[in-house]
């Protein structure tokens, strides 16, 4: 039986899941056997252990009772609830790391998969300034950006198609040096053999099919998933009936956006400081 490798450094959810699996294994219990003691399903135990579902206070308290760990899991669950990652995103990241094709559209900021460390740090530093997140949560977000990018360095390489709204490259983020390095990163990305980079110009107007960021994943078995976020949570859609119209709209977006050559020229102009 194949089991997903857990990295406790990835997030508070991953640390919780890794500890839960370790103690369950020590007792020789299956996920279903622990689930029977806790009052949930084995599928739920699996989702918590792999970080795909955050532990609720009630769940954590039940685990403490079943394993005889006092209130250790209940206290650890508080760190999970205070994580900077919105609900649903950790589960999406596990699928992103295995995807054969990634199609993304972003508005306002450079997407995480294309960010430099300095750009990511500048973005999160402003969130700390606004007291939207803590400095520790900012570090978690920046570390996750690096981890996500590292998972894409594999063979065979995933195909990554990125369409960025023009606002992504025109919105200054930090001092000129940060943006200069970010522009260079985008140009390097465009030169890779497994990528396509396009800019959706403001001139597209109403022809832009999306008003919010969207990602479509094609998995190795050719199944499709889409991911979108609200301000509070992310939603991963696996039903192809709902994903196919999004994929169609993405193709329409690519047809209306600038070609990669024209997009690279626009980024080069911005990097040189010309309008």
Characterization of the model:
The chain is built from 12 helices and 6 strands. By secondary structure, it is an alpha/beta fold. It has 2 domains: 12-81, lambda repressor-like DNA-binding domains (434 Repressor (Amino-terminal Domain), Orthogonal Bundle), CATH 1.10.260.40; 89-271, Endonuclease, Chain A (2-Layer Sandwich). A hairpin with a 5-residue loop joins strand 4 and strand 5 (224-229). Helix 1 (12-27) runs antiparallel to helix 5 (72-81), helix 4 runs antiparallel to helix 5 (72-81) and helix 10 (176-191) packs antiparallel against helix 12 (260-271). The radius of gyration is 21 Å and the shape is globular. The relative contact order is 0.12.
CATH topology of the largest domain: Endonuclease, Chain A
What's the total helix number?
12
Listing every helix as H and every strand as E from the N terminus to the C terminus, the arrangement reads: HHHHHHEHHEHHEEEEHH
CATH architecture verdict of the largest domain? 2-Layer Sandwich
Please state the overall shape, judged from the principal axes of the Cα atoms. Answer: globular
Strand order of the largest sheet: 3-2-1-4-5-6
Low-confidence stretches: none
């Amino acid at each position: 039986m194949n089991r997903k490798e857990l990295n406790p450094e990835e997030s508070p959810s991953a640390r919780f899941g890794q500890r839960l699996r370790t103690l369950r294994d020590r007792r020789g219990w299956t996920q279903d056997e622990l689930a029977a003691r806790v009052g949930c399903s084995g599928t739920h135990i699996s989702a918590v252990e792999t970080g795909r579902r955050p532990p609720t206070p009630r769940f954590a308290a039940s685990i403490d009772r079943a394993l005889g760990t006092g209130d250790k899991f209940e206290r650890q669950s508080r760190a999970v609830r205070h994580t900077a990652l919105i609900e649903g995103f950790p589960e999406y990241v596990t699928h992103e790391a295995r995807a054969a094709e990634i199609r993304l559209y972003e508005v306002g900021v450079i997407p995480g998969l294309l960010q430099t460390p300095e750009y990511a740090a500048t973005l999160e530093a402003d969130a700390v300034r606004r007291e939207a997140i803590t400095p520790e949560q900012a570090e978690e977000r920046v570390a996750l950006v690096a981890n996500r990018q590292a998972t894409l360095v594999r063979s065979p390489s995933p195909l990554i198609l990125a369409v960025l709204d023009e606002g992504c490259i025109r919105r200054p983020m930090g001092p000129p040096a940060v943006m200069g390095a970010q522009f260079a990163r985008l140009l390097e990305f465009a030169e890779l053999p497994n990528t396509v980079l396009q800019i959706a110009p403001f001139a597209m107007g109403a022809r832009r099919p999306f008003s919010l960021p969207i990602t479509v994943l094609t998995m190795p078995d050719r199944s499709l998933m889409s991911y979108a976020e609200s301000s509070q949570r992310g939603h991963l859609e696996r039903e192809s009936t709902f994903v196919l119209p999004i994929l169609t709209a993405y193709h329409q977006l690519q047809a209306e956006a600038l070609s990669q050559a024209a997009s690279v020229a626009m980024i080069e102009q911005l990097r040189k400081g010309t309008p």
